[in-house]
Structure formats: structure tokens, C-alpha cells
Amino acid sequence: MSVDDKLKNLRKSMKQTSLKDIEADKEKTKQYVMSHKKKRFSMNGPKRFAQIGASIVGMAALILFVVYAGSGEMDLTQGDQSGLGQEEAKEDLRYEMVVIDDEGELEDKEWKYLYNKQPMENYMKETRLLSDKSMEARRILASNPRPEGMYFPIAYVFDSENDQLIYRTDQLEDLKDFLPLLYQSPEPEQKKGEFTLSGITLGDSFNKVLEQLGEPDVYSPSSDHGPPYAVYKEGKTTVMGVSIGEENKVSEIRVEVAKTKEMDVPRTMKSVKAKYGEPTSSMDIVCSERDTCLVEQYDLLDVKYKTDGKTVDYIEYDTPELEEEFMKSFLPKEKGTVSAIYVEGEDEIEGMQDVMKEHRGLALSNSLSIQESPNQQAPSIYNVMLQVFLTYNLSEHGEVLLLDDEGEVLLRTKEIEKVDEFLEDWEAKK
Questions:
Q1: Is the peptide bond before 153 cis (omega within 30 degrees of 0)?
Q2: What residue ranges are annotated as transmembrane (predicted)?
Q3: pLDDT, tens digit, for every residue of 241-284?
Q4: How many H helices and E strands in the chain?
Q5: Which of 143, 181, 202, 385 could form a disulfide with 206 if both were Cys (CB 3.0 to 4.6 A apart)?
Q6: Rounded CA gap, 149 and 170, in Å?
């Protein structure tokens, strides 16, 4: 039926009703009918299907929500969750200490309550005391056998986050020194080193050292002889040492490259330059009673080569503060005196030691003679004096250096007469 026919029928119907006297606008009525026709057809098209699809998706989402919430995997609670018990809160603490004893009760209660002082209680779980006969103690001792010469009570410190043993000792004073090193200061992180050695760098926390390297084979607590020092071995051979400075941060790393078989470190000059680039400086220094060796410096990192000039002997990485503190030990002990450094070498200058003894206490307050120890098991003095050799460019055997209290070189010579004359003149001026 056309639109015109519909209008005729509409007019006819109107005449038979109460609307018969109303005049209809033909054009407006036509537009009205056409608009309703379009709406009806549009609902049968894509829009209609979209509405049906949306309804189906909404229903599916509602069903999934009800099933998921009913399974107990969805937490719909809101608000403050601070009602957790103290025991639950302790589970978040990272470190745990277990003390194993062969007696039923520890006589020294300090073993038990050692850490209950700020800031240590903020990160250490409660110490557990175990009898060595208990099942848990046996399990710990089986996994981490008691070292020879270590006696009960023994403290085991575990890193719960990484599930590893990081320290054990039967010395209470060593334990007191070790535990505070685990504390990480809330202060902003200090600037880290540019290079890494076996996963750690200068400025790393002691926690990072333990996490990366595990329990030290030897741990030397702080003393008058230097900062805390952690030693790592392969078998019986020392391959790495780490010094811990202020704020419990790494201040020195030394890797015995020629001795390690397991650590991922560069071993040749080619691999060193591939990893670190071009050195900032290089020099030859005395490295034994008869030899000199090449040392390349990459800012704070020093790479010492063997006598072949190609194979890495060791790598040392120090903070400027540690180097400065180390070098102070070679300055005069008394004001108004001088100190001496004597690189003996294979052939000692006859009478040089006698001259130094003669003037000691007057002009000379302390002296260091660099020579190999007769004890073959002792570490070579040449290996621990690297910073001295680099600072004063000691590249010749037989040299004597006289230093003032500022570390300035007053005399550099190989002649015994000049040393004797200088010290006599110094004494005459006092």
C-alpha cells in the first residue's frame, strides 16, 4: 500500500470518528509515516543485531562474575587491613636467626635477645633456639654442616627472601658486628660504581653482596686493622675480597682473576678492553723482587697484568675514601718527622737498613721496607701495596722515598749517602 492510499484511508476513518472535523496536513502526515517506517527497518538491521549481541555479552560477564566471586578467589572487602596479627607481620621480615645449642637452655641470654634493639628489630625475625637433637636442627646441620673448630652454640643467619644461609658463627662478638651490617639505611642511595665485578659494585649494600655471592668463607669483623671484610674462596684458594665501609656499603672489591675458575671476569687485555673500553692511564710498577708489571687504570678500577703484559693477574676496585685512608698509614706517625718507603728488590742496597735504624725516632718516625716474606704461605706484599706503587709511581727496585706529613715526596733516590745526609740535616733543623 502506498503512502497516498494510507492517507485516504486515514481521512476516511477520521470522518467516522470524533476527529472528523479536524483538517489534516497531508505533507506533515506523510513525513511522520515515513520516519516511523525508517525506524522500524533500522531496528531490523545491524543496530538490532548489535543490541542483541551486547545483551548476550553482558549476561555472560554477569555469570562469570558470580562464579568467580563464589569461588573465593576474589576479595570484595574494602577498608583498613591493619588488623593483621603480629605473627603475620613478622612473615614480611627478611632475615631469620637460628641458634643451635647442645644444651637445653642457653646460659648467655644475649644470644637470644641480641637483635632486639633499633634498627635491627625492624628487619630481623625472632631468634629461634633449637637443641641439636631436634629434627629441625638436624636438618639445618645436614644442609649446612658445622665447620671444623666451630662449637655450640652456633648462630645461623638466613635470608628468607632468597632461601639461603648468609652467615654462621660461634663467636658472639662477631655476630654483634655482623648483624648491623644487614640494616639498609632509609637514606637515599649513594652513587654506585661504574663497573661491576661478579655482580656487585661500589656502593652496593652488604645485603646485595650476600644475595649475589652467598655466605662468605671468611668474615673479618671491623677492627683497628681495617673495615669489615668478606672473603670468598674456591676450594682453599681465596679468589675475592669485599670491604664494607660506612653505611654498610661496599668500599672495595678485589678479584684474583688468575686464581678463579668460576667467576665471570675478563682474563686477558683484549677482554678487559672489550668490557671496560680504553684505560684512563697506564704505568709499569714493581710487582716482585725482580719484575715490573703493567697496570691499567679505568678511573677507580685498576687492572694488574702478569709479567707477560697480556694476562690479568687481579682487578682491584676502591672508593677514593678507602684509598685515602690506606695511604695515610704510610705518613709520619709524629709531627715534625718524615717517613720512608724502601723498595728493596732482589739486591738490597748495602747499609740502607742500618741508616734508617740510625735515624729512627729522631728524623724518621716510621719506615716501610717492601720485600718478599720468607713465609711462602703469606700473601705477597707486592700484591697488597698496589695503591702505594701507583700513587708514587714506583717502577724501579732499590728506590727510597722520604715523605712529609702531607704525603709529599721530599726525596727520591737510590743512593744511601743522600738518604743519610737528608736525615742528618732534618735532625739538625729540629
A1: yes
A2: 49-70
A3: 999 988 889 999 999 999 999 998 999 999 999 999 999 999 99
A4: 14, 16
A5: 181
A6: 10
